[in-house]
Amino acid sequence: MIPDDRDLLLRLLDLPTAGPLETTGEVRLWDAMRVYADAAAEIGFDTLHLAAPAPSVLDRPGVPAAVRDAGPDFLACQPSLVTRIGPAAPAVMFNVHLDTVAPFEPAGFDGTRFVGRGAIDAKGPAVALLAGVRAALAADPAVGRDAGVLIQAVSGEEGGAMGTFGTRPLVEAGFHGELNIFCEPTGLRYLPRCSASMTACLRVEGDDAIDDEPHRGHNATVLLGFLAQHLAENLTPHGRFCMAGLHTGRMHNRVYGRGELLLNLPYDSGESATKLAAALEDGLRSGLTEFSARFRDSPPFRRTAADAAAITGVHWRKRGLPALPAQEIPLLDRLVPRWPDDEPGFTCDAIWLADVPGTRTAVLGPGSLGANNAHSSGEYAGVADLDRFSDLVREIVVEFSRNGAA
Predict the structure, then answer these.
(1) Which secondary-structure segment (H or E) carries 247?
(2) Rounded to an integer, what distance in angstroms lies between the CA atom of residue 152 and that of residue 161?
(3) pLDDT tens for residues 70-103?
(4) In this structure, are residues 167 and 157 in contact, taking their beta carbons and an 8 Å threshold?
(5) What is the pTM of this model?
(6) What would the pLDDT profile of 229-247 be if each residue is shown by its tens digit?
(7) How far from the centroid of its chain's Cα atoms is residue 283's Cα?
(8) What angle in degrees, to the nearest 10, is found between the helix axes of 29-41 and 3-13?
(9) How far is residue 181's CA from residue 136's CA, in Å, rounded to a whole number?
(10) Residue 29 contacts by C-beta under 8 Å, 6 or more apart in sequence?
(11) How many angstroms separate the CA atoms of 57 and 265, rounded?
């Protein structure tokens, strides 16, 4: 990594870019996008798009409830950038996100590691990407002449937005290539598939009661706690899921009649999503039946047992997102180890290439979400990992420019 790349990464890491879905603090994504666009321009890229998304993106199917509920005003500080060198087609596209999770952490560099929010997810890969393209341009005149390189630098990857106002509208506007690489930490193995997820909210809407007369209310804490254990057992045979937060209240002197239990349900196809949703709804019905039978003769919970089915329902906070199916990508097979077929993948913005004809899409990047402390304290990226990713980018771009994606 040359000094200019180091300085660029530290400059990006110094900018707080967690979006409004993550924080109420300062959001400087416009500054980050302009810094990145200027760095790309220095090696010959032209800016094709730099704008905040239109409010209409929130009215589309599949937009998570948290995004829609935030309203359109927050979109003004969520720009995305598209920049290209060379022809529009054939082209290889790289997608990288400059938004981060919260909280902000100060940037630093000790000679071998960069630290700071976004170091590995994904400002570090964004800078390494530019270094790799710069090296490809120097290595072969076919790069930028016989094939183009397109970069999407997006907002809206974090915060549960799922790319619905960043990557999705860019792909629908035609900003993609025959080969598309999404820069996420994969340990420099290419992942040729991408799961999606649904978020279900089990909501109890009953009556509160005073602690001296708990039988007069509906006890959402007992009901949701029971359902959490019941569903944990019943959903396990159907694959991975996350039993997430349960909330009713924080006081000791009242019975809470309202509450929520959240579950996140990943899937790798529309068929598996349908089966998983049906399993959840079946499990909820059987859980409510069992709860009512168990507590119908218990004085503190008799009313809750009698009304359990009437006051409990599933509300989908996120549903209907596409999953990227596994595909063969011969170019990457020649250059990069493949993510094992029996190892679970993860969700990222690559899902929005699932239904685009004539494209091949993969996820590839340095480091690991877990080992590099992404989304947690002490996030870091090693210079050696970033340099190896730059080398891979150079090889991919040169190979694509010579032979296409086959």
Answers:
(1) strand 242-247
(2) 16
(3) 989 999 999 999 999 999 999 999 999 999 999 9
(4) yes
(5) 0.92
(6) 999 999 999 988 999 999 9
(7) 27
(8) 160
(9) 16
(10) 17, 19, 77, 78, 79, 98, 99, 155
(11) 24
